[in-house]
Each structure stands twice: as structure tokens, then as C-alpha cells.
Amino acid sequence: MDINKDLIAASSTPIVLAILAEQDSYGYAILQRVRDLSGGHMAWTDGMLYPVLHRLERLGHVEARWQVADSGRRRKYYRVTSQGRAQLAEERRQWQAVDTTLRGLWSVPFPQGA
Amino acid sequence: MSSMDHAQRLEEQIDQWRSYLRRRQAIHAVDIAELEDHLREQIAGLTDAGLAPDEAFLVAVKRMGELDALSREFACEHSDRLWKQLVAFAPESAEPATGGRTDAIVAFGLAVAAALAIKLPALFGLRLDQDVELLDQGAGVYARNMSLFVLPFLAGYFAWKRQLGAASVRWLAVAFVAAIAFVNIWPFAPGSDTLALAVLHLPIALWLLVGVAYAGGRWGQVDGRMDFIRFSGELFIYYVLIALGGGVLTGFMALLFQAIGINAEPFFAFWLLPCCAMGAVIVGAWLVEAKQSVIENMAPVLTRLFAPLFAAVLVAFLAALLWTGHGLDIGRNVLIAFDLLLAVVLGLLLYSLSARDPRAAPGTFDVVLVVLVVSALLADAVALWAIAARISEFGFSANRVAALGENAILLVNLAWSAVLYIRFARGRGSFAALERWQTDYLPVYAVWAAIVVVVFPLLFG
């Protein structure tokens, strides 16, 4: 099962914000976390995460800083801002509304032929 | 392979990958650093899981996504990056550009120095607004030194920037001092044309010195001189743009201060205009240097637009001349008008050449340029013919000899350029020959200008 592109694009903001709300992180670790949580179903193309992060940074939802990691390389860490937390809460309400609606419809088993 | 070899090979592969990314305009250096960190982490994770470094690299690159798609995503997020921004310090570089900053400080320091230099005569009670009258009486300190207020500083900027050797610096200094001494000490006869000619030609002669400083040891090479030609064109465009901006600024200044009953005009005429006119040369030069690889050169763009238009006008002029059979009306200034025409045509040719890929095959635009040059030559020939018929009537004044000399110099240049260009267009000559001819010719203008400045006062008084 591959999740379609529109759904991935739509869910990227709350997912990234939620991961960063747990703790400050960087691109590779965020992707690993998504992979683990989704059981491999959310297969983001690695590079595509960065434009998303940069957009969130531009909108003021996250802040970035360069820091030397344990590996000795410079690494760009992201931290969620208070504005980002408010955005996450808003996204969460919206997704829950979608989720509730779908749950109401999905009390029946998988349709025939699926 | 040992692990050392593996590591080295991996580094090479990452280098190559990085260089591919670097070609994408939308992906900046700082993003590449971020992506590289990701790639290395991914490779480390995969090798830990048992993959060979080569395989790990391939998988990691694949997971990063296709370069085109990635570049498109970055472009969507950073659409501003597709416009090269006119900021002096590239913000994407992680380390502050200390070199660029020193450069800016030196340039602005020299600009201030040039701005102050033009106020030096004021210390001796010489007023700028009286200079034109004084010029008629053979004085005119400002007019005599106009180019000397700024060009030594400009040459100095490049001498510093290119780290010119002591011998070259000494040589340049001697030349500037000689120029300063000559124009200020020589007793030009009151009301003579030779002083006005000297004032007009001195900047042309001195521009060669700036060129030597600019080329910084590469003056002997065609490339070095060609770069100077490019620089001159860009500087001219920047200067015009700065002047336009300055005009708007002073317009507002005058309006605002007038509204509160203060007349800003004296300040404008005695301080703002002269000081900024000098300083802007250095600032413009610094901008050209700072921007040369960042934004498109404008001079070739303008020549692309105007070369066909000028060619059309000249061809139409020649056709009308033939059709109507009208003779040329030889007024006093017609020779100067044709000198200017040839200079413009030469400029169009020069800046088209400067932007042309020397290896490209001849194309339509080359034909346009040949038509432009040949029609300019024909028009000039008609004018010269008409002038020659009446030269005895006009007589040989200093002005006329200077104008004729300039016409001859431009004519020779363009005629031989036309020959070389036609040879090239027909596949019988190389483009390099044309470039060499144009760049070798540069000193001729300066030498002629120097002759007008130094020898004409002796000949014509």
C-alpha cells in the first residue's frame, strides 16, 4: 500500500510539527521517525522533506539553527515555535474532524471487491 | 579494496553528487550542506545494516529523490531564488564573507576620498559655478581635473584588489602625477579650443591606466583586455542607473525642503552633485566587481536589442540617400555627429563580441552585425567625402583635426573588423582574430587622446 501524493503533502505539516513538538530534531531523524511510526507506509522521498521544513521556517512555525553534531559535521536542527504549536493544535482539530467523519462511515467492513 | 580506498571513493562520489546539486539555481549552498548531512547519515545507516559503501551511496541518492523533482520543489518554496538578488553579501554562505566586506569598506573609503577630492579646489576659494567662465579664460581648475579627481582612486582600488606589483604601481603613479602636472601647469591660451579638447580627451587617455590596473598583470593577454572592455560597459550602465536614482532622490530632497522653506539648491549644486558624481564611479566599479558572476551582464543584452535597430536605421538612411540623391548638408558639427555614430557602432560591435561564445558557429546575429558595420562605414564614407570637398573652406582648426583623427581611428578599426568578421562568417577566419584585433586596438584610442591633450596645445596654441 502506497499513500497517495496529495495525502502525503497534506499530512506533512502536522506530522513534522508533531515530531518537532516532541523534541528538536533534524531532517534525517524526522524521516526515520515517520518511517517507524507508519510502519514504512509513509515513504517520503527524502529530499522532499527539506522544502517542507523551509516552508515551515518561512511561515515562522519552526526555527532552525546550525550546530555541530556528534558526528563532527555541522547539522541543521529545527525547533518548533509557539506559533508552530498553535498551528499544530489547529491542524490537529481539523484532522480529528476528518477522522471522526471517516470513522462514522467506516463502521461497515471494507467494501466488496477491495 | 581496503577501507581507505572505500572511504576515498565514497568522498569522490559525494563530491560529484554535490557538484550536480550546485548547478541547480534554486538549491543554495546552505541547502546542499543540509542535504549532504542527510546523505551521509543515510549512508552510515545503510553500511551499518551491512551494505557496501558503493551500494549504500546509490541507495541513499535514490532515496533522496530525483534531482529535477527536488530542484522543482526547492524552486516552489524559494521562488525568489530564480531571480538573482542584487544583494552584495550572499546570505547563503554560512561563513560571513569577510573578503567581500573588506572590499566594500575599501571601495567606499576610496569613494569618499574621490568625493572629497573634488572639494579640494574649494579650499583655495575656487568655486565650481565660476569654473565655466574661468575655463574660457584658460583656468577652469575643476574642468581640467575632472577625471583626475576620481580615476587615480579607481586605479588605486584595482591596484589594491589585484595586488599589483610595486613596479606597476610606481609606473601608474608616475603617469597620473604627470597628467596632473601637465593639465594644471600648461599655460593654455585663453579662449583656445585646445583646453576644451584636453578636458574631453584626458579621461580617455587615463582610462587606459585604469585598464592596466584593472587587468592586474593580464593586460598583455587578450582575455585581460576583453574583461576590461566588459567592465567598462557594465560600469557605464551602473553609473547611469545610479545617476537616475540620484536624480529621483535629489528631486524629492528639493521638494521636501522647499515645503519647509529651505532652499536646498546650493547644497545640491556644491556638495551633493559633484561629490556623488565622483563617488558613484568607485561605487559602480565595486558593484560591477561584486556582481560580475551573480547577475547577467547588461551591456550585451542592450546591444542585442539595439544592434538590429541601428542597422535598420543606417540601411534606411543609405537607401534614402541613394533614392533621393540628396547631398549631405555639411554643418559645423556633422563630423562630430559621425564620430559619435561610429563610436556607438563600435560599442555595439564590441559588446556583442564580448558576450559571444567564441566557439559558436556564425549565425543570424553575426550577419546583422556585419550589415551594421558595413552600413556605418558607407555612411561615414559619404560624410567624409562631403567634408573633404570643403575642408579647405573650413580650414584645419584644432577641433577639426581632432575630429578627423578620431574618425580615421574608428574607420580603420571598423573597416578591418568588417573584413575579419566577413572572413569569420564565411568560415575562413577565426573569431579569435577579431577579438585580438579589437583588444589590441585599445591603446590606440588612449594614445590618440594623449596626443590631443599633450601635442595639440603645442601645435595649435
Task: Quickly describe the structure.
The complex is a heterodimer of chains A (about 110) and B (about 450). Chain A is an alpha+beta fold.
CATH superfamily of chain A: Winged helix-like DNA-binding domain superfamily/Winged helix DNA-binding domain
Sheet bearing the most strands of chain A, described?
A: 2 strands, antiparallel
Number-wise, the strands of chain A total 2
Total number of domains of chain A? 1
Query: Major β-sheet of chain B, in short?
Result: none
CATH class of chain A: Mainly Alpha
In whole angstroms, the N-to-C terminal distance of chain A is 12 Å
Helix and strand topology:
The complex is a heterodimer of chains A (114) and B (461).
Chain A: H1 5-22, H2 27-38, H3 49-59, E1 62-68, E2 74-80, H4 82-105
Antiparallel strand pairs in A: 1-2
Helix pairs in contact in A: 1-4
Chain B: H1 3-22, H2 29-48, H3 53-64, H4 67-77, H5 98-117, H6 120-123, H7 131-136, H8 141-145, H9 151-161, H10 166-185, H11 193-215, H12 222-259, H13 265-291, H14 298-324, H15 334-355, H16 364-394, H17 398-425, H18 431-460
Helix pairs in contact in B: 1-3, 2-3, 5-9, 5-13, 9-10, 9-11, 10-11, 11-18, 12-13, 12-15, 12-18, 14-15, 14-16, 15-16, 15-17, 16-17, 17-18
Overview features:
heterodimer, A: 114 residues, alpha+beta, Arc Repressor Mutant, subunit A, two-stranded antiparallel ribbon, 4 helices, 2 strands, globular, B: 461 residues, mainly alpha, 3 domains
Structure description:
The complex is a heterodimer of chains A (114) and B (461). Chain A is an alpha+beta fold and 114 residues long. Chain A has a single domain, classed as Winged helix-like DNA-binding domain superfamily/Winged helix DNA-binding domain (Arc Repressor Mutant, subunit A, Orthogonal Bundle), CATH 1.10.10. Helix content of chain A is 57%, strand content 12%. Chain A contains four helices and two strands; from the N terminus they run αααββα. In chain A, strands 1-2 form a two-stranded antiparallel sheet. Chain B has three domains: 3-94; 97-290, no CATH class; 294-429, no CATH class. In chain B, helix 12 (222-259) packs across helix 15 (334-355). Chains A and B meet through helix 3 and strand 2 of A and helix 2 and helix 4 of B.
